[in-house]
Amino acid sequence: MPTGGKTTLTQFLIEERRRAPEATGDLNALITDVSLACKAISRKVAYGELGGMLGSAGASNVQGEEQKALDVISNSIFLRANEWGGHVAAMVSEELEQVYTLPSQYPRGKYLLMFDPLDGSSNIDVNVAVGSIFSITRAPSPGEDAQAADFLQPGTRQVCAGYAIYGPSTMLVLTLGKGTHAFTLEPMLGEWVLSHPNLRIPESTREFAINASNSRFWEPAVKRYVDECLAGQTGPRGTDFNMRWIASLVAETHRILMRGGVFLYPRDNKDPAKAGRLRLLYEANPISMLVEQAGGRASDGRRRLMEIEPESLHQRIGFVFGSADEVARIERYHGEDPPDAYASPLFARRGLFAQAG
Ligand code: MN
Ligand code: MN
Fold first, then answer.
1. What is the 250 CA–ligand 1 centroid distance (Å)?
2. Beta-carbon neighbour count of residue 315 at 10 Å?
3. First to last CA, the chain
4. Per the count of CB atoms within 10 A, which of 81, 152, 163, 349 is most buried?
5. From residue 283, how far is each of 141, 148, 296 by CA, in Å?
């Protein structure tokens, strides 16, 4: 075997399909097209400054965030790789306000593809790992153009979710609902090779990740959780915790899938118009499926994230995921919120991050 006896992505997909005799092969073909887009983006990212694409694209996306040239290029790589094959009915991208309707010459397929073509792109200038995230559901009206409402399905209806991470090595992490599996790109062959089958997130952890600069906006349950972690051995948890923060969702997810931990980007009161920072359809839902399939837990802080009925394409949501015991604890703390908690002098004093006065 050219891959030293290890399974390639192609072989993995074919063997998965043999176990589902009703499958037509469309999903495998779609995943193959997505994985090709990820390989192409990986090459663009690897050229860094030499590629001449690290700067701003001089525009903002639908979220009001600065678009980098590489965001725009990654978006069009995803669109071009997936629009022609007849597997998708339409697509939704972080970089496009509206549903992407396929060019008229291509057949409409039976799946919907949602993606964040370049996650963590605000980190690209500092050469930190970035990635692409994707989610696949069935199209309610296969063979026809899909409308925005067709995409508003809860995460439990995903048939496949995954991400590629462009780090020291390029990896593709995938679930089809039977475990979470990681493939490493063999750079000479250009093949995805199954390097980490059946990832498992340990149930408990002593590592958490949160953007502490937002602490003054946190809900009391989050403050309490973080304070207890920070209090370490002398606090109620009776053990020391480590903190990590990369500010790249794909990189945070990858660390947690590889060695455990808990990630929080909770709902806060920084901007009442936004229920959180991360996007439900193409960030939180696919990451949740990967995490659950690896034995972890994923939540909006209060309930199972994948059961939330989406209301809009670019909806934001509070997101807490990782080791099951810690996520369950955070959900429990939210259930114990005292009423009118922000005004409570108790919470104003107790936080280690709390502001004076
Ligand atoms: Mn992102
Ligand atoms: Mn992005």
1. 8
2. 17
3. 67
4. 163
5. 24, 17, 16
Please provide residue 335's backbone torsions phi and psi, each rounded to the nearest 5 degrees.
Answer: -65, -20
pTM of the model: 0.93
Tokens for 211?
């953007």
Q: Which of 335, 357, 356 is nearest to 220 (CA)?
A: 335
Do the beta carbons of residue 128 and residue 150 sit within 8 Å? no
277 CA distance to ligand 1 middle (Å): 10
Neighbours of ion ligand 2 (CB under 5 A): 94, 116, 118-119
Chain segment 33-87, per-residue pLDDT in tens: 999 999 999 999 999 888 887 777 777 777 777 788 899 999 999 999 999 999 9
Q: What is the pLDDT of residue 338?
A: 57
234 CA distance to ligand 2 middle (Å): 40
| Nearby residues for ligand 1 (ion, Cβ within 5 Å) | 116, 119
CA of residue 119 to ligand 1 center, whole Å: 4
Domains of the chain and CATH, by start: 9-196 (3.30.540.10), 207-347 (3.40.190.80)
Residues 6+ apart with CB under 8 A from 150: 89, 90, 112, 139, 140, 141
pLDDT above 70: residue 122:
yes
pLDDT, tens digit (0-9, with 9 covering 90-100), for 165-209: 999 999 999 999 999 999 999 999 999 999 999 999 999 999 999
Instruction: Supply 74's token pair.
Output: 């990654």
How much distance in Å is there from the Cα of 17 to the middle of ligand 1?
A: 30
What's the rounded Cα separation, in Å, for the pair 224 and 238? 15
Using the CB atoms, write b or e for 134-167: b if 16+ within 10 Å: bbbbebeeeeeebeeebbbbbbeebbbbbbbbbb
